[in-house]
Amino acid sequence: MYLRFVFARTRDRSRLRHGILHDARGGSDEETAFWLNLHLPVPPKRAFSGGRGLCWFKVDAHPCIDRVRDLALRLEGRGERIWQIYSRNPGLITYADEFQVVAVPDSVRLRV
Q1: Whole-number pLDDT of residue 55
Q2: Considering only Cβ atoms within 10 Å of each terminal Cβ, which end of the chain, N or C, has fewer?
C-alpha cells in the first residue's frame, strides 16, 4: 500500500493534483525541506519518465509520513485543502527506496 499527499484543487487545466512535497522541497516550508533533504532520498530524474512519474510513500515510512502530515496540517491552517490518497497499485514503479516509490500511473502509460 502506498500514500500520496496532494493539493485538493488543481493548479492548471490538466486536472492533475500536485503533491505537497514539491512545494516543500522548493523552499515554501524551510523546516520540512531541511528535514526531507536530510532523510528522504531524491529520486533520479530519469525515474519520472519525462515528468509522468509520481512519488508515493510506502505506508510503513512512518517518520516521513508523520513529517508530511504536519506539513499538511500547516497548509490546511493557511486555507489549503489537502487530500491523502492511498493506492495498492500506483502504476509502473520506476524507482524505489526504503521510504518511497516513483510510479508512472497506468492511465498515463496507456495514453502513450
Answers
A1: 95
A2: C
Q: What is the maximum alpha-carbon separation in the chain?
A: 39
Extents of the domains making up the chain: 2-111
Residue 77 has pLDDT above 80, yes or no: yes
Q: What span, in angstroms and rounded, lies between the C-alpha atoms of 82 and 76?
A: 7
Q: Is the model's pLDDT at 28 over the cut of 80?
A: no
Q: Residue 101 is which amino acid?
A: V
Q: What is the 3-state secondary structure (H, E, C) of 8-65?
A: CCCCCCCCCCCEHHHHHHHHHCHHHHHHHHHHCCCCCHHHHCCCCCEEEEECCCHHHH
Strand partners, 101: 56, 96
